[in-house]
Amino acid sequence: MHDRLHTDEAFGPSIVSTGHLPPNPRVDELVEEAWQRYRGVGDGTVADYIPALAKASADWFGICIAGVDGVVHAIGDAERAFSIQSISKPFVFALVCQALGGGRARQSIGVNATGLPFNSVMAIELNADRTMNPMVNAGAIATTSLAPGANAEERWRFIRDGLSHFAGRELTMDQEVYESEAATNQRNQGIARLLLAYDRMYSDPEEATDIYTRQCALNVTARDLAVMGATLADGGVNPVTKERVVDEDRCRRVLAVMATAGLYEQSGDWLYEVGLPGKSGVAGGLVTTAPGKGGLGVFSPPLDAAGNSVRGQLVTRFLSERLGLNLFASQPA
Ligand SMILES: NC(=O)CC[C@H](N)C(=O)O
């Protein structure tokens, strides 16, 4: 976790919101304040283990909040496309829970934290559940292997269409990012094979890894992430399109696993500072959900050592504080 998140910082009073997010002009002001406050932060490194991601500019920076009332507040590069990467994980888990039932999804994957990096092989070896959690690669590839469909094409369509419903628009894949990761993802292929050996892989491992790599290469914007996060906040109804994507009880399970492992081995620090379920991706996206209130999407490519966006974390902590969103704060009824 970025050092600055370990130090106390004065944010000013919070707008304690008990129902929906507070009136729009205040949220716009705070989004702008967050952007100004952190745009000069130069720490972190753009991911390059997937070669195509290294082309991103360290300066790209966008923030977007979507309320459960469907009102959207955005600033900076909020409409710039980037690959969703690991932020696909909670949404694919939601879709698989919806299709199979939360009980079966939990039994097949597990919901405990690994405390280890997202692509850890040790986590598989050390834990009897093997897959551990849908927020790390092992659990995510196993989740993808549970997607319904008669063949790979149908399973891929199930995932792409489902994620598109969360975003409220048709998402398309970044072919260059997909090919770049497909050529370099031997570690994920190894994880999938290892899970097969432990009976925790539910389709052909090569196929599951390929579909997982495709889902990670879907292009989104900070605005899409905010709407996707707001759909989880709104009990599964997309607040912009008004379409129900998944049932309410699936959302609360998804938010629980995000809280447990959404920022990998830094999830404890994150919950301590921000008090909300979040999920990061190596392209620099970060989604956060304030249940019953809304979703926040931040995009800024430089990452800390765990692979989480540095500015994304700083912005989210600031807005969680100022908007009074921390789930663990006692709020007036
Ligand atoms: N943390 C991430 O965003 C990782 C996603 C990436 N596609 C991988 O599997 O390595």
TrEMBL record:
<dbReference type="InterPro" id="IPR015868">
    <property type="entry name" value="Glutaminase"/>
</dbReference>
<keyword id="KW-0007">Acetylation</keyword>
<feature type="binding site">
    <location>
        <position position="137"/>
    </location>
    <ligand>
        <name>substrate</name>
    </ligand>
</feature>
<feature type="binding site">
    <location>
        <position position="264"/>
    </location>
    <ligand>
        <name>substrate</name>
    </ligand>
</feature>
<feature type="region of interest" description="Disordered">
    <location>
        <begin position="1"/>
        <end position="22"/>
    </location>
</feature>
<dbReference type="InterPro" id="IPR012338">
    <property type="entry name" value="Beta-lactam/transpept-like"/>
</dbReference>
<feature type="binding site">
    <location>
        <position position="282"/>
    </location>
    <ligand>
        <name>substrate</name>
    </ligand>
</feature>
<feature type="binding site">
    <location>
        <position position="181"/>
    </location>
    <ligand>
        <name>substrate</name>
    </ligand>
</feature>
<feature type="binding site">
    <location>
        <position position="86"/>
    </location>
    <ligand>
        <name>substrate</name>
    </ligand>
</feature>
<keyword id="KW-0378">Hydrolase</keyword>
<comment type="subunit">
    <text>Homotetramer.</text>
</comment>
<dbReference type="GO" id="GO:0004359">
    <property type="term" value="F:glutaminase activity"/>
</dbReference>
<comment type="similarity">
    <text>Belongs to the glutaminase family.</text>
</comment>
<protein>
    <recommendedName>
        <fullName>Glutaminase</fullName>
        <ecNumber>3.5.1.2</ecNumber>
    </recommendedName>
</protein>
<dbReference type="Pfam" id="PF04960">
    <property type="entry name" value="Glutaminase"/>
</dbReference>
<feature type="binding site">
    <location>
        <position position="212"/>
    </location>
    <ligand>
        <name>substrate</name>
    </ligand>
</feature>
<feature type="binding site">
    <location>
        <position position="188"/>
    </location>
    <ligand>
        <name>substrate</name>
    </ligand>
</feature>
